[in-house]
């Protein structure tokens, strides 16, 4: 798990997804029975995919929803922050 945190800190969530998938493919198969969902999650919502993978094994209850909301906001801020910086650079 500490390798995953290090990869997330230095490279990003998509690399963390790749490392986690290589380290524990059975967890991915148990949570995502169809291969298209983790692929789409890795492309469009990587933080949400990682957060869901973290909490979904025991079911999503209580404070798990807060973690998922924070992950969705992190994904949206990645897209929004990129547009904001491009707008400032264009001036």
Write a structural description:
This protein has 91 residues and is mainly alpha-helical. It has one domain (2-90). It is built from six helices and no strands. The chain has helices spanning 2-10, 13-23, 25-31, 36-44, 46-55, 64-90.
Shape: globular
Please bin the fraction of helical residues.
over 70%
Task: List the uncertain runs.
Answer: none
Mean pLDDT: 85
User: What's the helix count?
Assistant: 6
End-to-end C-alpha gap = 43 Å
What is the secondary structure topology, with strand pairs?
Blueprint: H1 2-10, H2 13-23, H3 25-31, H4 36-44, H5 46-55, H6 64-90
Give a brief description:
With 91 residues, the chain is mainly alpha-helical.
Which structural traits does this protein have?
mainly alpha
